[in-house]
Design goal:
Layout: E1 11-18, E2 28-36, H1 40-43, E3 50-56, H2 64-78, E4 85-91, E5 95-97, E6 103-104, H3 107-119, H4 128-136, E7 146-152, H5 163-171, E8 178-185, H6 191-200, E9 205-208, H7 214-224, E10 228-236, E11 242-246, E12 253-254, E13 259-265, E14 273-279, E15 282-288, H8 308-328, H9 332-345, E16 375-377, H10 381-384, H11 398-409, H12 419-432, E17 436-438, E18 444-447, E19 450-455, E20 458-461, E21 470-473, H13 477-485, H14 489-493, E22 499-503, E23 506-511
Parallel strand pairs: 3-4, 3-7, 7-8, 8-9, 20-22, 21-23
Antiparallel strand pairs: 1-2, 2-13, 4-5, 4-6, 10-12, 10-14, 11-13, 14-15, 16-17, 18-19, 19-20, 22-23
Helix pairs in contact: 2-3, 2-7, 4-5, 5-6, 8-9, 8-12
């Protein structure tokens, strides 16, 4: 299924809700999507912003890397708008700024930046802390968002080298309207440091592998964030009692992009939803609906439950928890929560890599074939990718490869540097930003608000009393009567002809 929302307002909001057990005891799930109006006239209202490009020019950048750095800088400064301000900072053993503070993006200033980029040469060590402090201490226009794009290919070797000290130094100077986006080039980077910097800077971290283009990666992000629409966003959730919302910090909204939030609610959505944020220095407020999820829901004409929503929420939460563990160290309570969610929803994590199994284990039960549709798309990220880079859509045969790739990516979860550390960082980011539900090749399934595990040659619902199960032959009269009595079991029976499921207070064993 593909869900699309359309609104005539400058900022559109769509709400989708899912109550897994009706009037039962389990709380509901929601998805809130915020998107700017797509029109030619709307583009003229874009606010300007300030960019600071911070580039590593240490000795390890020699060769192709420095050429890519020059080309990347040229690409970015050429696309600055007249209402923008900007600066360029290069660092190695020392730190050098093009200007003391960002200047308006005039034709003359852009020419100076092009000359500065052309003249940079690789030499010396890697002074990460002084370079970032220089960027954050600048005097910038208060009415404009400040985007710091930080590119490095190495570990800190000059000045502060301890992660904690560097982060404390940045905390002391970071202004509230600044966002920091980090790019680690190659595998000799400290992923924990770069991810922490991006997290504290309310930006994101990306990694450019040896066989990838730095220019393409930075250009994709730069293009994505070049047109801010609404910043410093806050939401009043229509009187709903909401909790466990991800991402925990609401990102800024840019032209051509959208914000997608997943969370839980105990009750509510009985009042209009209010979205507040900054358009330049001005505070704007947008009100939606007359109250109630129905007034805003994309699914108001749908009669089928939105069962993909719990797994999407769980994927986002697992990504958040894994990020906290990577950056702050192992914490038993967080690890236990990851394992619980992963086992319930069939997610591969560093602690549940055993869930990734070969399809041959299920062949006797005829599970959903790889060529069957198994993906729900919520937005263009399924094709464009969360990092904004163009990529081909994932084929329907991807679940098995996806599970295996995740298990491999999390193999070096505790590493801070190296190829394994980059893979773990990217896998964690993928969960944090997940907007799609895919089929999977694990030994656990979450179907019809139930968790099933493959064991004893059958898909057995968690908590089912197999000893007291009533046998029902697949495709028999009793089988179809069961589906008629409990329509929600239609989704369960797609698992195959060997299923043990609970319904109406009884347990049923479906046999071939």
């Amino acid at each position: 299924d593909l869900f699309l929302g359309y609104s005539e307002k400058d900022i559109g909001v769509n709400l989708m809700t899912h109550d897994p057990d009706g009037d039962g005891t389990e709380n509901g799930y929601f998805m809130l999507a915020i998107a700017p109006k797509v029109s030619a006239e709307a583009a003229t209202t874009e606010i300007g912003q300030t960019f600071t490009f911070v580039m590593d020019t240490s000795g390890s950048m020699a060769g192709d890397k420095i050429e890519q750095a020059r080309t990347t800088l040229a690409f970015c400064v050429k696309r600055l708008k007249p209402q923008d301000h900007f600066n360029v900072i290069r660092f190695s053993t020392d730190v050098e700024s093009l200007y003391p503070n960002p200047k308006p993006a005039t034709a003359g200033a852009i020419q100076e930046a092009m000359a500065f980029a052309k003249a940079i040469e690789p030499a010396g060590g890697t002074a990460i802390e002084p370079a970032l402090v220089s960027a954050l201490k600048q005097t910038v226009p208060k009415s404009k968002p400040h985007q710091v794009i930080f590119v490095t290919d190495g570990l800190p070797t000059v000045g502060m080298t301890d992660n904690g000290s560097i982060l404390a130094s940045l905390d002391a100077v970071k202004p509230t309207n600044t966002r920091v986006f980090t790019f680690g080039v190659g595998f000799s980077v400290n992923t924990l440091l770069l991810d922490s910097i991006a997290s504290k800077g309310r930006g994101r971290s990306d990694y450019v592998k040896p066989d990838e283009s730095m220019e393409e990666a930075v250009a994709a992000l730069y293009t994505r964030i070049s047109s801010p629409v609404l910043t410093n966003i806050s939401i009043e959730y229509g009187g709903a009692r909401i909790y466990d919302v991800y991402p925990t910090q609401i990102p800024d909204l840019f032209r051509g992009d959208q914000i997608v939030l997943f969370g839980r609610f105990r009750s509510g959505f009985s009042k209009p939803i209010v979205v507040k944020g900054n358009v330049g220095a001005a505070v704007r407020e947008f009100t939606y609906g007359s109250g109630g999820a129905k007034a805003l829901a994309l699914d108001e004409k749908s009669t089928s439950p939105l069962e993909f929503m719990p797994k999407l929420w769980a994927t986002r939460k697992v990504g958040f928890l894994l990020d906290q563990i990577r950056l702050n160290g192992r914490q038993p309570e967080l690890e236990t929560e990851v394992i619980t969610l992963a086992k319930k929803f069939g997610l591969v994590t560093p602690y549940t890599s055993f869930l990734a199994v070969d399809d041959s284990e299920f062949q006797q039960n005829s599970p959903p074939r790889d060529d069957q549709p198994n993906e729900v798309l919520l937005n263009s990220d399924a094709i464009r990718g969360g990092d904004g880079r163009s990529r081909r859509p994932m084929a329907a045969s991807a679940p098995k490869r996806e599970a295996e790739a995740k298990a491999k990516a999390f193999k070096d979860f505790d590493a801070s540097s190296g190829e394994g550390a980059v893979a773990a960082a990217e896998a964690t980011q993928d969960y944090k930003e997940s907007n799609t539900v895919k089929g999977n090749a694990t030994n656990r399934r979450y179907v019809a608000n139930r968790t099933f595990e493959w064991k004893s040659n059958a898909w057995i619902q968690e908590g089912a009393d197999t000893a007291k199960a009533t046998e029902v032959k697949a495709f028999s009269t009793d089988y179809f009567n069961l589906l008629k009595k409990f329509p929600e079991l239609k989704a369960v029976m797609k698992l195959g002809e060997r299923v043990v499921v609970k319904a109406g207070g009884k347990t049923y064993r479906v046999i071939p």
